[in-house]
Amino acid sequence: MSEPKVTIADVAREAGVSKGLVSFALNDRPGVSAESRIRILEIAERLGWTPSLRARSLSTRRSFALGLVIARDPEVLGSDPFFPSFIAGVETVLAPQGLALVLSVVPDEKTEMRTYRSLVSDGRVDGVFLSDLRHNDPRIPLLQELGLPAVTLGRPDTQSPFPCISVDDTPGVAETVRYLISLGHRRIAHVAGSPALLHGSRRRAAFDNALSEAGLPAGQSIETDFSVAAGADAARRLLTQASPPTAIVFANDPMAIAGLGVAHELGLRVPDDVSITGFDDIDFTRYVFPALTTVRTAPSDWGRAAGRTLLDLMALGTAPDVDLPAGRLVIRGSAGTPLRP
Amino acid sequence: MSEPKVTIADVAREAGVSKGLVSFALNDRPGVSAESRIRILEIAERLGWTPSLRARSLSTRRSFALGLVIARDPEVLGSDPFFPSFIAGVETVLAPQGLALVLSVVPDEKTEMRTYRSLVSDGRVDGVFLSDLRHNDPRIPLLQELGLPAVTLGRPDTQSPFPCISVDDTPGVAETVRYLISLGHRRIAHVAGSPALLHGSRRRAAFDNALSEAGLPAGQSIETDFSVAAGADAARRLLTQASPPTAIVFANDPMAIAGLGVAHELGLRVPDDVSITGFDDIDFTRYVFPALTTVRTAPSDWGRAAGRTLLDLMALGTAPDVDLPAGRLVIRGSAGTPLRP
DNA sequence: TGCGTCTTCTGAACCGGTTTAGGCAAACCT
DNA sequence: AGGTTTGCCTAAACCGGTTCAGAAGACGCA
């Protein structure tokens, strides 16, 4: 229970060597004979010594922890399973290295910036993950100024010194639109995510492009904040118009599921009266009715890639960008041939 | 950018006093004259000094961080918005104190126990939140042995030295069952959560009780792991029987939403053919069709209460249990009068 | 005036590692 | 043989705070 915690001095004394040598042996650095190294490690093992993280932190000026600051309305956060999966993915690479993840959930951008500053001035973390990239993201110059290694989740639209993990959403959106067109849809609308968020505006641009490439006129788009409530509102507006779209492409699954609910509520059949597609392929999509046609993404792959990249960056001082394979369309029941085109 | 980080020694030199006195002034402890204190703090301010968390950690043997270890399948984790809200609640009390939250998401119980051990042996955290309480929870004796302060989320079924934050699920479940009975339902089934989890088995017991108190025969119950997939399976089994229930009480909302999907898929109308209720009132419930009748709980209140209690426990050595107000039934469209009772 | 007490403050030890300058042999030159 | 290199190791400084024993001065009191 309360054994007086064995320290490096105990190990050194027991082995009849200096503290320094124990330290060298532990971090296997040159200048220790093979026998000594083995003997020291054996004694450390026997004494049950684990080097004090705190002491190590102080002398090495590292904290052995990585940070993730999430600035989202808890409500939006709750309906989006991205982060749990992402974090689970990150952990698979952090845990074996003995690194911890420090998580902050903050309500607004101002608090967010303050949080980064205090993470740094407290020396709480050795690096951070930058998620939900925004246009002209102020966090990038901030972190650069603070000298904190970072990895961005998504490709920034500004000059950035940090490696990024990104995936091109264009093919997924394009595939969705082409699929809908092949089913006979001509009036296709888009419920976009937040235009302030890069993946929000990029998915929207991909949607516009796909339509024009198919030679169709621009479709209706409604901007939202990615929340379920906003998705429902948008769906209601679209579907109660004089001549409503026959298909709606939602920028994420939670909004699409809300759209499904709205369609049902309005007495519309899905997909006969309106086709609905989502984005992300969250767990729910398989179990709503009709099951949601959507684009599969892999948040835990993001996590793993981001974790590895950040580790590389910190160890090597540089790390290459990672391009994750684009999401593919998963065809289920929520999109079909329009009854009245 | 890379100012050579001002330390306590700089402040002491500038103020013409000893390091010790600066430390005393900072932690406002007796033995410092009012003038000195003011002058020192002013100089600290001017120099932009923030005491090094790392040095502080080493000498005080505290880490100024709290831990949360989540042992859940990422898939289940993703569809349940409890943790994001809970964490947001926790942060509101940690952040002002300068405390950080260290999060671990682990795949299984063995890793979980190992994680607690290493959090302690690394001195990574000063206390932890124990969520998803299980029967005869092995984490309680473990943490007791490790001497780590903890707060349990839910009332343990064994002797526990830790304060707990709990809410009685019984009234919510009972209210739901009574409501269904009042609508005319007699064959009511329950899709229970994991029996290994305390809230899973307690909600089930509440269900059984409510039926027997109403003088009805025991209803069907199916155990699940709280996952969306399991909820869908259970619903399918229940609804494809010879004489299916007219109402199903699900132990959480994600499963209930899956149940809604299954009912639709089977061509059943909700609530005419089958009524469905959930538990937790997650964001989605308002936007599925029909909107889900469920029991409202407040995860961020749990977070705040748990945070405060853990702080009290660490500061005072003891803290009282907290009983959160029981969840109330929120009536929406998914439950109604059975057409064929 | 002398003595005890209180307040304010200092110096040094301490937390538990890492790191650097340097000592001492043994091995390697030529 | 003498000088240099090399390998292994030690002692001490250092990271930046906290804490404790005790010094110095102010004050009260007999």
UniProtKB/TrEMBL annotation, chains A, B:
Domain of life of the organism encoding this protein: Bacteria
Gene3D superfamilies found in the cross-reference section: 3.40.50.2300, lambda repressor-like DNA-binding domains
This protein's record includes keyword DNA-binding: yes
Signal peptide span: none
InterPro entries: HTH_LacI, LacI/GalR-like_sensor, Lambda_DNA-bd_dom_sf, Peripla_BP_I
SUPFAM superfamilies from the UniProt entry: lambda repressor-like DNA-binding domains, Periplasmic binding protein-like I
UniProt keywords, alphabetically: DNA-binding, Transcription, Transcription regulation
Pfam families, A to Z: LacI, Peripla_BP_3
PANTHER family the UniProt entry points to: ALANINE RACEMASE (PTHR30146:SF155), LACI-RELATED TRANSCRIPTIONAL REPRESSOR (PTHR30146)
SMART domains (alphabetical): HTH_LACI
Keyword Ribonucleoprotein assigned: no
HTH lacI-type domain segment(s): 6-60
Species per Swiss-Prot/TrEMBL record: Cryobacterium breve
Protein name: LacI family transcriptional regulator
